[in-house]
């Protein structure tokens, strides 16, 4: 256990105490962590060198799936999570079959197109979707227990935190596994991949379905926390926000996705309160600075600091790939 | 009649006005290392591209172990036991040499579990031996984009060998390797191929290598197999001296 691991562990513990030390931040962090899970999906694709400008599609699909299920008698948080994530994964498989044939800008734009089609459907089929007003998502029970608002929100906070850690761990395992390593070679050499007897499309599709499922899980948690789903869940600005956070946190870094999402939400909340007119400008300048001076994002900055601090006790070169650039 | 390892029948392909394969017929038999020589633009690499499914010929067929593989994509042909090393090494540039081999072996074994970590695969030692074989054990943990071109070519060959192919196609395996090391590497490589029971076909411009390591030589010219024979016969042939060796010496 080096300093590299101790600091994130302390940060996680601090976050876990938030409901008692800073209850005002609890809902903000629930939303931030839920978004972090969704951003992990976008980050995952960055590892294969692909940028999706339409992943809010899966965020929205899962949220609406949860809202539809909640309208039935099965309105339990666990059921919503499973149904929504499955819905996102299945739609990820269907959309993926089309988009994995493309790379770079075509991949990004085709994803955007799919998400905007879904957004229009949500807007226009208002008998089913509630149109621009969206659907209410009443507070679900949890394993059969109906909770009051305060304990439910507390529970939701810990469920989100737990899922963030568990899914983050899972994605890291996936990336380190043979199938995940093959997935990442789509970025560097598809010719060799083919000559290893592997289909780049199938490999990319596996990662794509996982990324869609992650976005879906994030979408359900946000929907449950807000108690409403609207077409804005699937709007392109939401997709752009995910890419923004992924790059801010460190394109390709899973812990970076979490740090980026928390930083983004906190900056946005406070900037909106203290500089209502220019908060987008603040974030924009912040991102510009990150891209220019710290292309590894927040995770890259941390990595650099940790390397400097642990140089004495860990001379075995931590061969982390250099800052990954976003290919679009 | 025994089945040939690989058989090309009457292959034809054109790129615009250039005929890169104009009725190519060639059989490759198990255990015989075949060198392909010929002037630039004769269609040597095109032949490898057709055999591995990268290019589809406008006419003709390719058989691997008696099975028609002409219309199959490269990955399906690779899965049947044909591996390829490239003239310009095709490696995963953000990974180390060892990781490149471990990725190859995970492709070979078809591993799917997200919980098994790549480094924990049981073939680690086998891959280390393979790196050692091509003389790259010392750079196992270096990223391949930091290696010299010669080293990258050797790692590229090791990646192909990691698939345990029946047939290995190599496009100028020793170009880019320092000439003082060429023979040493070919010595090791040819022995390793024999031991692993891999038949090889290699495109080569160095006649010294051809003479020493090929069992047979096929001469390409203008999209055709001009002649075929033992290295001694071919390299002494006046046409070959004029068209191929002359050009190489120039």
TrEMBL record, chain A:
Topology versus the membrane: Multi-pass membrane protein
RNA-binding found in the keyword field: no
Compartmental location: Cell membrane
Major site of localization recorded for this protein: membrane
Entry annotated with the keyword Aminoacyl-tRNA synthetase: no
Transmembrane segments: 50-70, 77-99, 105-122, 155-175, 208-230, 242-266, 278-302
Recorded superkingdom: Bacteria
Keywords recorded for this protein, A-Z: Cell membrane, Membrane, Transmembrane, Transmembrane helix
GO terms under cellular component: plasma membrane
GO molecular function: branched-chain amino acid transmembrane transporter activity
Protein name: Amino acid/amide ABC transporter membrane protein 2, HAAT family
Species per Swiss-Prot/TrEMBL record: Palleronia pelagia
Lineage: Bacteria, Pseudomonadati, Pseudomonadota, Alphaproteobacteria, Rhodobacterales
TrEMBL record, chain B:
Alphabetized Gene3D superfamilies for the sequence: P-loop containing nucleotide triphosphate hydrolases (3.40.50.300)
Coiled coil: none
UniProt keyword list: ATP-binding, Nucleotide-binding, Transport
Residue span, ABC transporter domain: 6-247
Single GO MF descriptor: L-isoleucine transmembrane transporter activity
GO CC, one annotated term: plasma membrane
One GO term of the biological process aspect: L-alanine transport
InterPro entries: AAA+_ATPase (IPR003593), ABC_AA/LPS_Transport (IPR051120), ABC_transporter-like_ATP-bd (IPR003439), P-loop_NTPase (IPR027417)
UniProt-listed PANTHER family: AMINO ACID ABC TRANSPORTER ATP-BINDING PROTEIN, CONSERVED COMPONENT OF ABC TRANSPORTER FOR NATURAL AMINO ACIDS-RELATED
Protein name: Amino acid/amide ABC transporter ATP-binding protein 1, HAAT family
Organism of provenance: Palleronia pelagia
């Amino acid at each position: 256990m080096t300093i590299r691991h101790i600091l994130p562990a302390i940060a996680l513990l601090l976050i876990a105490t938030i409901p008692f030390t800073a209850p005002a931040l609890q809902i903000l962090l629930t939303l931030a962590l839920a978004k972090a899970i969704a951003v992990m999906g976008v980050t995952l694709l960055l590892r294969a060198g692909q940028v999706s400008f339409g992943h809010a599609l899966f965020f929205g699909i899962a949220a609406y799936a949860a809202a539809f299920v909640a309208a039935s008698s099965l309105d339990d948080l666990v059921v919503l999570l499973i149904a929504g994530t499955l819905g996102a994964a299945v739609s990820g498989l269907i959309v993926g079959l089309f988009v994995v044939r493309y790379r770079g800008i075509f991949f990004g734009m085709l994803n955007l197109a799919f998400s905007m089609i879904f957004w229009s459907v949500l807007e226009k089929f208002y008998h089913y979707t509630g149109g621009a007003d969206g659907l209410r998502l009443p507070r679900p029970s949890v394993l059969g227990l109906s909770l009051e608002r305060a304990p439910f929100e507390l529970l939701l906070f810990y469920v989100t935190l737990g899922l963030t850690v568990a899914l983050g761990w899972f994605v890291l395992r996936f990336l380190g596994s043979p199938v995940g390593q093959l997935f990442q070679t789509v970025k560097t050499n598809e010719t060799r991949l083919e000559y290893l007897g592997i289909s780049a499309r199938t490999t990319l599709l596996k990662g794509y379905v996982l990324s869609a499922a992650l976005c879906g899980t994030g979408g359900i948690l946000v929907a449950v926390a807000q108690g409403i789903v609207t077409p804005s869940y699937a709007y392109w600005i939401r997709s752009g926000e995910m890419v923004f956070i992924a790059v801010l946190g460190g394109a390709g870094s899973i812990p970076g996705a979490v740090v980026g999402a928390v930083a983004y939400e906190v900056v946005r909340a406070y900037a909106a309160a203290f500089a209502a007119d220019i908060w987008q400008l603040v974030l924009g300048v912040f991102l510009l600075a990150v891209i220019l001076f710290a292309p590894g994002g927040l995770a890259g900055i941390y990595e650099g600091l940790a390397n400097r601090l642990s140089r004495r006790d860990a001379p075995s070169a931590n061969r982390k790939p250099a800052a990954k650039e976003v290919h679009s | 009649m025994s089945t040939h390892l690989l058989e090309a029948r009457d292959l034809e392909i054109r790129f615009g006005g250039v005929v890169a394969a104009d009725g190519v017929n060639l059989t490759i038999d198990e255990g015989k290392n075949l060198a392909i020589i010929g002037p630039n633009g004769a269609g040597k690499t095109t032949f490898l591209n057709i055999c591995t499914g990268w290019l589809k010929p406008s006419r003709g067929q390719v058989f691997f172990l008696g099975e028609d593989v002409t219309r199959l994509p490269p990955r399906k042909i690779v899965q049947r036991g044909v591996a390829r090393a490239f003239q310009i090494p095709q490696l995963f540039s953000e990974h180390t040499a060892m990781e490149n081999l471990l990725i190859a072996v995970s492709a070979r074994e078809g591993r799917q579990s997200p919980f098994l970590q790549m480094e924990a695969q049981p073939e680690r030692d086998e891959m280390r031996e393979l790196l050692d074989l091509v003389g790259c054990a010392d750079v196992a943990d270096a990223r391949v984009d930091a290696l010299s071109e010669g080293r990258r070519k050797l790692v590229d060959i090791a990646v192909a060998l990691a698939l345990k192919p029946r047939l290995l196609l190599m496009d100028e395996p020793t170009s880019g390797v320092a000439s003082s090391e060429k023979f040493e590497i070919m010595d090791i490589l040819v022995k390793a191929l024999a031991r692993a029971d891999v038949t090889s076909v290699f495109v080569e411009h160095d006649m010294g290598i051809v003479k020493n390591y090929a069992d047979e030589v096929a001469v390409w010219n203008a999209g055709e197999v001009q002649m075929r024979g033992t290295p001694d016969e071919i390299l002494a042939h006046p046409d070959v001296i004029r068209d191929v060796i002359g050009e190489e010496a120039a």
